[in-house]
């Protein structure tokens, strides 16, 4: 393979290996590991104790609030990821079927909203969704409803919708990139062999674009879980997610050890979810 | 791609239109309000004005913060894509020692809450006496967005048929020639895509930036702090300008940079 | 626990794109590094300060108490010279040895502050072992905002927040510490900052009831204003006091503000120097500069907060103000508050 077994490129290979192991060690493993040791310290009465203990991890399992909140958060973010992929796939597909510059211009237009600060977007979405927000005022004005809807006012629906709107571009692009790579002749062959469009899609296009779909859903899932501002801003009293618990440990609670332990647990859970996604991708 | 039936084509277009409405709807709020003065909480529809834009030109703090954001965004994106290519080639070709573990490591900063990454980097930089500055912000962002670049590139590299590379070797090309003439061109759209995702993420990153910056503000740090007192109208102007500028850049880039032969798939 | 690395090697490895990095990691040290809330270090003040003293103030703005703590503690005070912090939060910084005491001789303007801020020993929390760790700058009470059209007569007690009549029309603040303190006042507990476990239990139950009555828990004043504008809101527990009142009145809201009879919590923001302060004189010059009457007036005019130098209408002389103190166990309160929020 590349740079392997090529005498002249030996120096390059060694350099690449050195960087590929060295940089992650220096800038990821070293800082994170040294910080993760905090997760074995403990805090009581505002004082940090530096003897090693498992109590932060056991507290996650014994305290009644953490597992339910983590579970709900995972469900919510999975819903966001699936919704984003479901909405993103047709868009990516539509773009991939276009030809010429139109395709790339539209693709760029999908991505442009990413460069609008997300805090500003959340504020805007909130002014649209509120009880007297633009959406309700429009619906009432158009005589579609009599009373303002409460369906999207500061509850988990609003969080779901807002996160999806914010993160869709992160779903569209990976799916588009994988659709774009499907060799044209495969599709032509399928059509030549008498397969209908639907059959071609199910048997050829969908399986070949699955890696992109898995990438898309895992990007969106991870970004949704990491976001602690959106649930706070549009979730109302129930907009309480695992990300917010972790955030509060580093600030108000002054419990870095517990925050670090919860971060480790969250990272493990997310890796498990992503690994499951990969398996699904390989099996199909 | 295949020839779509009318119905399918219409359905897809309708869904695409819906997604565009979702994406652009929220943007209309700050953009429209940037052209009107707001008095006593109400938009003065009758008197359009550019005063927000004038105020923006006087707001040096915001402009500097915006430029810092661009510097960080471009640098971190460049580094992340470069490293993404390097790691992808390394872990997809031959070298498998600790591959799964190292991939996990690359993904970790993306999986951990940003406040945790920010704190660990801050403490790490403190212990190693690296002064906090925009440089440390760039390192922090590179670490954070690397996973996106790596994953996007690896997916593309996997779909690149091995026979291409072997053919290149058989024709007597060196590794470098193969990389430059066979691999890179095939990675092109994935690289552009990866760069855009990385830049977008870096552009909005608040928590890591705040924790590892020295005395420099970035735009998200300023916006985050402004949430306490409310956004000034010039922020709407800035947002509108960013949108106009990026849209223009995108259209121009596609119009002039895309070679004719890229038309049609 | 920590891994020491050759600094030069690290920097060399980090600078992979030197062409893009024209900026500023090796700046002159003569500048003053300030961490402040929005509104505490406006551009025109920074400019005037530079003209007067020749010192360049580099200001980084923060959004929450949590971030100040993470940033100052994470850098062990080395990243900033002077920072804004309230008297309750200040205690953990003093405990952690993250502050440097002020020298009052360098702060002549402190002599001209309002009478109630003259005697620093009378202000709880800013002195420790005879040393002044922070200088008061800005304050406000945490009272109740009510919509005059929806709440009549004017409320005089926090209990109205629990009134089912206003279900879904109440905005409360997302902060465990404060919520436990004000609920303690509402329940008539004598010391809201040092609660017994039984009292905590009672308060937790009371807060769970409050959650049922609340439309949302906000974190910033602007957020509360936006919520008010796009929803049917009658009552707001006003963590940012007069500032919120000003912002809402500017937006055309017909509202009133009361400090309820149980006593309103009040916060006091101060300027403290970090343990890593590089130029103490410059930091004190900054604080002294901000203690001018003109600056105080501008601060109140622009933000609505009360200042320590010029009289404002921030609190009526008859209002009972309960200055925030460091609470018995912030971790515990935060945990209990998380439990309240996690309930369905």
Question: Short description, anyone?
Answer:
The complex is a heterotrimer of chains A (284), B (265) and C (344). With 284 residues, chain A is mainly α.
Protein model, in words:
- The complex is a heterotrimer of chains A (284), B (265) and C (344).
- By secondary structure, chain A is mostly helical.
- Chain A has two domains: 1-30, no CATH class; 54-283, MetI-like fold (Orthogonal Bundle).
- Chain A has twelve helices and two strands.
- Chain A has helices spanning 10-36, 55-62, 66-97, 100-111, 118-129, 134-141, 156-180, 184-192, 197-226, 229-234, 242-250, 256-283; strands spanning 42-44, 47-49.
- A two-stranded antiparallel ribbon of chain A has the order 1-2.
- In chain A, a hairpin with a 2-residue loop joins strand 1 (42-44) and strand 2 (47-49).
- In chain A, helix 3 packs across helix 9, helix 8 (184-192) runs antiparallel to helix 9 (197-226) and helix 9 packs antiparallel against helix 12 (256-283).
- The longest helix of chain A is centred in the first third of the chain and has 32 residues, at 66-97.
- Chain B has 265 residues and is mainly alpha-helical.
- Chain B has two domains: 23-59 and 232-265, no CATH class; 61-231, MetI-like (MetI-like fold, Orthogonal Bundle).
- Helices cover 76% and strands 4% of the residues of chain B.
- In chain B, helix 7 (162-170) runs antiparallel to helix 8 (175-204).
- The N and C termini of chain B lie close together (7 Å).
- Residues 261-265 of chain B have low confidence and may be disordered.
- Chain C has two domains: 31-139 and 267-313, Periplasmic binding protein-like II (D-Maltodextrin-Binding Protein, domain 2), CATH 3.40.190; 144-258 and 323-342, Periplasmic binding protein-like II (D-Maltodextrin-Binding Protein, domain 2, 3-Layer(aba) Sandwich).
- Chain C has eleven helices and 15 strands.
- In chain C, strands 1, 2, 3, 4, 7, 13, 14 and 15 form an eight-stranded mixed β-sheet that branches. A five-stranded mixed β-sheet of chain C has the order 10-9-11-8-12.
- In chain C, a hairpin with a 2-residue loop joins strand 5 and strand 6.
- Residues 1-29 of chain C have low confidence and may be disordered.
- Chains A and B meet through helix 1, helix 3, helix 4, helix 5 and helix 7 of A and helix 1, helix 3, helix 4, helix 5 and helix 6 of B.
């Amino acid at each position: 393979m590349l740079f392997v077994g090529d005498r002249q490129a030996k120096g390059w290979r060694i350099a690449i290996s050195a960087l590929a192991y060295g940089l992650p060690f220096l800038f990821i493993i070293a800082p994170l590991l040294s910080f993760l040791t905090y997760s074995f310290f403990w805090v009581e009465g505002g004082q940090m104790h530096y003897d090693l203990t498992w109590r932060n991890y056991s507290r996650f399992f014994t305290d009644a609030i953490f597992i339910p909140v983590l579970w709900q958060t995972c469900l919510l973010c999975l819903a966001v990821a699936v919704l984003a992929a479901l909405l993103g796939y047709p868009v990516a597909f539509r773009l991939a079927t276009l030809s010429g510059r139109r395709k790339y211009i539209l693709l760029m237009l999908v991505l442009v909203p990413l460069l609008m600060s997300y805090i500003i977007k959340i504020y805007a979405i909130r002014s649209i969704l509120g009880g007297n927000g633009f959406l309700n005022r429009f619906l009432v004005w158009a005589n579609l409803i009599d009373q303002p809807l409460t369906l999207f006012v500061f509850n988990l629906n609003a969080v779901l919708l807002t996160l999806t709107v914010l993160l869709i571009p992160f779903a569209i692009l990976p799916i588009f990139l994988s659709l774009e790579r499907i060799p044209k002749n495969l599709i032509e062959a399928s059509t030549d062999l008498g397969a209908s469009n639907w059959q071609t899609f199910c048997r050829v296009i969908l399986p070949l674009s699955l890696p992109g779909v898995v990438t898309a859903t895992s990007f969106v899932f991870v970004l949704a879980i990491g976001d602690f501002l959106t649930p706070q801003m549009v979730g109302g009293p129930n907009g309480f997610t695992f990300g917010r618990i972790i955030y509060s440990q580093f600030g108000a609670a002054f419990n870095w050890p517990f925050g670090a332990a919860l971060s480790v647990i969250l990272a493990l859970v997310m890796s498990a979810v992503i690994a499951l996604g990969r398996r699904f991708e390989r099996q199909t | 791609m295949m020839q779509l039936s009318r119905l399918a084509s219409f359905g897809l277009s309708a869904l695409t239109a819906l997604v565009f409405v979702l994406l652009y709807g929220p943007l209309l709020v700050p953009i429209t309000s940037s052209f009107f003065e707001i008095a006593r909480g109400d938009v003065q529809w009758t008197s359009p004005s550019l005063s927000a834009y004038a105020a923006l030109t006087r707001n040096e703090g915001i402009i500097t913060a915006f430029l810092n954001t661009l510097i960080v965004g471009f640098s971190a994106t460049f580094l992340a894509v470069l490293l993404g290519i390097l790691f992808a080639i390394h872990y997809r070709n031959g070298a498998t020692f600790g591959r799964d573990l190292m991939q996990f490591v690359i993904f970790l900063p993306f999986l951990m809450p940003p406040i945790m990454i920010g704190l660990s980097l801050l403490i790490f930089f403190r212990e190693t006496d690296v002064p906090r500055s925009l440089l440390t912000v760039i390192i922090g962002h590179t670490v954070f967005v690397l996973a996106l670049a790596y994953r996007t590139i690896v997916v593309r590299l996997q779909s690149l048929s091995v026979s291409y590379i072997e053919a290149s070797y058989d024709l007597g090309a060196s590794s470098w020639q193969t990389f430059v003439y066979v691999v890179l061109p095939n990675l092109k759209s994935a690289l552009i895509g990866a760069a855009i995702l990385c830049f977008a993420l870096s552009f909005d990153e608040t928590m890591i930036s705040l924790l590892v910056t020295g005395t420099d503000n970035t735009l998200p740090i300023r916006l985050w702090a402004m949430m306490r007192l409310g956004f000034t109208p010039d922020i709407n102007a800035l947002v509108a300008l960013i949108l106009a500028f990026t849209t223009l850049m995108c259209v121009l880039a596609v119009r002039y940079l895309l070679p004719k032969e890229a038309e049609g798939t | 626990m920590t891994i020491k690395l050759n600094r030069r090697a690290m920097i060399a490895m980090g600078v992979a794109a030197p062409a893009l990095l024209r900026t500023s990691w090796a700046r002159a040290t003569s500048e003053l590094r300030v961490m402040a809330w929005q509104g505490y270090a406006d551009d025109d003040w920074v400019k005037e300060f530079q003209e007067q003293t020749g010192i360049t103030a580099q200001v980084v703005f923060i959004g929450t108490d949590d971030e100040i703590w993470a940033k100052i503690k994470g850098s062990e005070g080395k990243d900033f010279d002077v920072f804004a912090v309230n008297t309750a939060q200040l205690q953990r910084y003093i405990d952690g040895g993250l502050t440097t005491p002020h020298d009052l001789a360098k702060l002549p303007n402190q002599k001209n502050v309002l009478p109630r801020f003259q005697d620093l020993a009378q202000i709880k929390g800013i002195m420790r072992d005879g040393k002044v760790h922070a200088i008061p700058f800005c304050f406000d009470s945490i009272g109740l905002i009510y919509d005059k059209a929806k709440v009549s007569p004017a409320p005089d007690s926090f209990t109205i927040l629990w009134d089912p009549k206003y279900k879904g029309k109440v905005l409360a603040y997302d902060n465990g510490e404060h919520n436990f303190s004000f609920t303690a006042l509402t329940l008539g507990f004598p010391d809201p900052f040092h609660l017994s476990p039984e009292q905590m239990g009672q308060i937790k139950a009371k807060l769970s009831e409050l959650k049922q009555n609340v439309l949302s828990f906000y974190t910033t004043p602007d957020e509360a204003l936006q919520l008010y504008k796009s929803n049917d809101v009658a009552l707001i527990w006003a963590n940012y006091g007069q500032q919120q009142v000003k912002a809402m009145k500017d937006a055309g809201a017909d509202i009133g503000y009361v400090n309820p009879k149980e006593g309103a919590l009040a916060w006091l923001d101060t300027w403290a120097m970090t343990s890593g302060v590089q130029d103490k004189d410059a930091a004190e010059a900054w604080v002294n500069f901000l203690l001018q009457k003109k600056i105080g007036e501008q601060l109140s005019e622009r933000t609505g907060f009360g200042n320590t130098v010029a009289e404002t209408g921030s609190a009526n002389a008859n209002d009972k103000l309960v200055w925030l103190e460091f609470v018995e166990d912030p971790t515990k309160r935060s945990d209990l508050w998380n439990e309240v929020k996690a309930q369905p």
